[in-house]
Amino acid sequence: xxxxxTTIPGGLVDAHAHLTLDLGAGPGVAANRAxxxxxxxxAVRDAGSRHGIPPDELDGxxxxxxxxxxxxxxxxxxxxxxxxPPAALVDAARAQVAAGVPWIKLMADFPGPDHDWFAPxxxxxxxxxxxxxxxxxAGGARVMxxxxxxxxxxxxxxxxxxxxHGPMVDEAVVEAMxxxxxxxxxxxATIARRTGPLEVxxxxxxxxxxxxxxxxxxxxELGPAGVAAEAxxxxxxxGLSPADVLHAATExxxxxxxxxxxxxxxxxFAGDPAADVTSLARVLR
Length: 285
Ligand SMILES: [Zn+2]
Prior knowledge:
- It contains ten helices and eleven strands.
- The protein is α/β, with parallel strands linked by helices.
- Residues 16, 18, 47, 220 line the site of zinc ion.
């Protein structure tokens, strides 16, 4: 049996990567970039790190990045940030925007000592989050919010631009996201590793796609070579069609991230990813 190759102009887009962390590809941005590239990923949104990647160190045509994680003491893994107390949050966001950071990475909640991702402590008052959104938007930046708990609907109402993770997104939140144009990077494979797969995804993810919510593919803890695994999980665990996931990993992400395909960038896969999502794991060129 022969497999017809499929060429995707611009290649794939990873909407939630951490290029500075060692998530299996080795330490350092260069190692992560090489692993992403080998996996067919030619455009990336870095989802933040301790110091962030300075905008002038990015390939501006193919990469955007959040800055340093914004979270209070105890509101994230301690080695990953310098804490930002609530009273300093808006100024910290303003400083990042002034430095040219296009995405503010807000850790909206985080589990306490019980490690319960569905009942995390809320890190900042929603009034503060709304102020961060105003500051970001006034400076041409946007806000990506890490959230695993029930505060996700309030974050959408506060105007954040993308929900990262959001395992407690329900049908009502999906409708609010559709109305506001909020993107969703559900990172289902990363969450499934921590909590097991969630039945709710089979309702909310297809509904989100049907309503036009930009659902994007993010590798997060899978590491920069994990895009095919996340895509496959979105089909198997999330109930999305391979064609929907391919859109999420290409044009859908490019529209949200404002990273148009660059002339000459293309990736060829063995098979047709729009029919068989596992083709994304078989990069030919
Ligand atoms: Zn992340």
